[in-house]
């Protein structure tokens, strides 16, 4: 189950600052990575793809749909995981959190409860249903967000630095779950190891596509450029 992402002459401006400049991409790979330095527009692109905000100019279509104009369709087409799970989780228990998204899609309470139990069992976490989210570790909260999105079965899952700040074992466990995901992934990350096995890579720089293509080719050029910049930069001039 792959998704089609069509971006044409996309601009995004906020508070007078142009964050993205004339982006044009046509993507249909199942595993797509996005890399770039802080301030390059990666998170803005994630929100645009998910339909959480509309472009200032240009067009973006996910499987033929303008998700910023059709929020119900957006719930079917795209799920998103943010860097901080606290920005996503709104209910006290794991079961309630998972069921909420399903109810937003139109499930009745009984149907949502059944689907929630099914997802928890798929992750071998049936005993988590009544668990209070505030008792969980950061990595476990990320897993709750992932299960909530998986339950809604979107065709595309957008990952906006969801592993930042997690230790190596926790990242490995979450990556293992992601490998089981049947839809498409658009993964924004600073860590090249997160993109092992990905087919396509987009390198954003100052709001523009610096390079896009097969992961291995783009990654080697990107890493070389980052090493060169790391030697030349003064920390006082690094973008925030």
Automatic annotation (TrEMBL):
One of its GO terms (molecular function) is ATP binding. Pfam families: ABC_tran. InterPro entries: AAA+_ATPase, ABC_transporter-like_ATP-bd, ABC_transpr_CbiO/EcfA_su, ECF_ABC_transporter_ATP-bd, P-loop_NTPase. SMART domains: AAA (SM00382). PROSITE patterns: ABC_TRANSPORTER_2. The keyword Signal does not apply. Residues 5-231 form the ABC transporter domain. Keywords: ATP-binding, Nucleotide-binding, Transport. Transmembrane segments: none annotated. The keyword Nucleotide-binding applies. Belongs to the ABC transporter superfamily. This is Energy-coupling factor ABC transporter ATP-binding protein. It comes from Ruegeria aquimaris. The lineage of its organism: Bacteria, Pseudomonadati, Pseudomonadota, Alphaproteobacteria, Rhodobacterales.
């Amino acid at each position: 189950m792959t998704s089609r992402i069509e971006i044409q002459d996309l601009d995004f401006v906020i508070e007078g600052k142009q964050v993205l400049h004339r982006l044009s991409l046509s993507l249909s790979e199942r595993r797509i990575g996005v890399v770039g330095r802080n301030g390059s527009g990666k998170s803005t692109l994630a929100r645009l793809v998910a339909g959480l905000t509309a472009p200032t100019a240009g067009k973006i279509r996910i499987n033929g749909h303008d998700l910023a104009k059709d929020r119900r369709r957006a719930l079917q087409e795209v799920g998103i995981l943010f860097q901080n799970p606290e920005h996503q989780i709104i209910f006290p228990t794991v079961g309630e959190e998972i069921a909420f998204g399903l109810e937003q899609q139109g499930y009745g309470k009984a149907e949502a409860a059944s689907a929630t139990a099914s997802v928890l069992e798929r992750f071998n976490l049936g005993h988590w249903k009544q668990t209070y989210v505030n008792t969980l570790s950061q990595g476990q909260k990320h897993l709750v967000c992932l299960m909530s999105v998986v339950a809604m079965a979107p065709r595309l899952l957008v990952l906006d630095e969801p592993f930042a700040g997690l230790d190596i074992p926790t990242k490995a466990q979450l990556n293992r779950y992601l490998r089981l995901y049947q839809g498409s992934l658009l993964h924004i990350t600073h860590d090249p190891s997160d993109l092992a096995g990905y087919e396509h890579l987009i390198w954003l720089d100052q709001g523009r596509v610096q390079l896009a293509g097969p992961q291995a080719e783009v990654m080697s050029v990107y890493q070389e450029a980052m090493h060169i910049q790391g030697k030349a930069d003064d920390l006082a001039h690094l973008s925030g």
